[in-house]
Structure prediction request, 305 residues.
Amino acid sequence: MTDALKTFLTDLDLDIRAQGDWGQVADYIPELGRIDPAQFGIAVALPGGGMVSAGQARQRFSIQSVSKVFSLACVLGRIGEQIWTRVGREPSGQRFDSILALEHENGRPRNPFINAGALVTTDELLTGRAPKETLAEILGFLRAAAEDDDIHIDKAVARSEAATGHRNAALAHYLKSCDNLRNPPEITLGTYVHQCAIEMTCEQLARAGRVIAQLPGAPRMLTPLKARRISALMMMCGHYDGSGDFAFRVGLPAKSGVGGGILLIAPGQASIAIWSPGLDGYGNSRMGSHAAERLAHHMGWSVFG
Prediction:
């Protein structure tokens, strides 16, 4: 299967570059706005430690909201189901940075993958710890999952987000006004933007995703139940208000980030990371979503049978 998959990924890379419909980069974060959208990488981690990749699979990029998957994994490992008293498990139907639903829900975010929900998750990780310790925990989880210590925070991206993240600041203050933020808003927000500024390659991210896919040979860092919980949320909420369309087209749990990354999970079969920084109208990678659909259909990977 490895040789056939390599051929498919190489051809997919060529097809995507020929199309050239890249979308727009996330220029509201100035550091991300400088990135050339005409880039593409894909990596597939297989059972037993195999890796097949194509394109710019070793190019580092800002994983942004893909990091929310791993901060949630850390929280579930620390306090388990108690986190659901502070954040819900329902699709939002709104933009990832919307304050509308938060107001309607009296300060309890609808899920941990919208920005408000991720702020609550980060705030929970901060309980009893300094920001550096919290970030070290998230980085430590990623490094252990990927079996690679060369994973770091892009401080320039973190500074850029901190300087322009006024909507996130509004969300943090609203959460605090509803008593759903335990730490000072600026502390939670500063930790959150550094978490989002973690940079990885597709190959590193695909390796890290093996712990969610529960692949044979992967580090055992999540119980099967926690992995299923995370995968379910990725399916329902991982692409914000485009989650339903992505599930319809691809049929796999996935989490996107405005840096252009997508982590897909084919439970028991593969962990897939895709990067292309140009985004669609939902804030998800345009060509990354197209590549995910092509790959899932070609391999017959779907949670729906």
About this structure: The longest strand covers residues 261-266.
